[in-house]
Amino acid sequence: MPFAVTETDDTGAPILVFDGLCPLCHGWVAFMLRHERRPRLRFVSAESATGSSLLHRHGFHPDQLTTFVFIDNGRLYTHSDAALRMARELTWPWRWLAQLARRVPRPLRDGIYNRVARNRYRWYGRLHTCPLPPAAHRHRFLA
Question: How far apart are CA 95 and CA 83, in angstroms?
Answer without folding.
Answer: 11
